[in-house]
Amino acid sequence: MGLGGVNALRAKGEDREHVTDAISFIRELRQASDLASLPVGRDVVVIGGGMTAVDAAVQSKLLGAENVTMVYRRGSERMGASRHEQDHATSSGVRIICNAAPVAIHGNGAVAEIEFCYTQDGPDGLTLTGDRFRLKADQVFRAIGQQLQDAPDGLALEGGKIAVTGPGRTGLPDVWAGGDCASGGDDLTVTAVAEGRDAAEDIDARLTGRPAEIPG
C-alpha cells in the first residue's frame, strides 16, 4: 500500500491549476507508452529535497522544460537526496535553491509564479527570515514527503507508519508489513525487497510450524 498521501504545501493558492504532486507525475511517466504525450511546462518548479524531487526535476528537463528549479527549505546537507543525486540533478540542468520555503502561489486560475521566503535553521527550528523572492512557474510539483493513508483498523502506528518488530510483524496476528509504509529502515526499493524476503520466511515458518529466525 506504500505511502499514498502527499503532504500539502500549506501555502496560499496551492489549489491553482498545474500544481500537482510529483508522485503522480512519476507514476504517469513510468506508465506512459508515448512520453511525448506527457504535458510539461516551460518553467517547472519542484518543491522538495528528496529523491522523488530529483527524479521529477530531471525528468521534466528531459521532457523539454526550459527552466527547472528545485527549492528546498533547509540546507543541502539536510536534503534527502544524496550528494550524488544532487550532482546528477545539477549536471542535467536543474537549478537547486536551498533555505527557502513557499508562502504563496500566484496566478489567474493557473499558476504563474511562486513566492518564497528565505529560511534559517537554528536551535529553535526552522524560521522564516522575511526576505522573499518569486520564481516564474507554469508547472509545480510537490515532493515534500508522503504519508500513510487508510491503514487497516487495529494496526499500531509509529511515527506515522505501521509499527513492526522483527521480520515485519505488526500488532495484529498474521499480518506483516514492510517497505516505506512500515516503521524503521530506509525508504528504498532494496530495503523493501529485503523486508519482503524476511517477512516471507517468517510467514513460511508460521505456516509450517518450524522455529522462526528473527533478524537482528
Automatic annotation (TrEMBL):
<dbReference type="GO" id="GO:0016491">
    <property type="term" value="F:oxidoreductase activity"/>
</dbReference>
<keyword id="KW-0285">Flavoprotein</keyword>
<keyword id="KW-0560">Oxidoreductase</keyword>
<dbReference type="InterPro" id="IPR050097">
    <property type="entry name" value="Ferredoxin-NADP_redctase_2"/>
</dbReference>
<feature type="domain" description="FAD/NAD(P)-binding">
    <location>
        <begin position="20"/>
        <end position="196"/>
    </location>
</feature>
<dbReference type="InterPro" id="IPR023753">
    <property type="entry name" value="FAD/NAD-binding_dom"/>
</dbReference>
<protein>
    <recommendedName>
        <fullName>Thioredoxin reductase</fullName>
    </recommendedName>
</protein>
<dbReference type="Pfam" id="PF07992">
    <property type="entry name" value="Pyr_redox_2"/>
</dbReference>
<dbReference type="InterPro" id="IPR036188">
    <property type="entry name" value="FAD/NAD-bd_sf"/>
</dbReference>
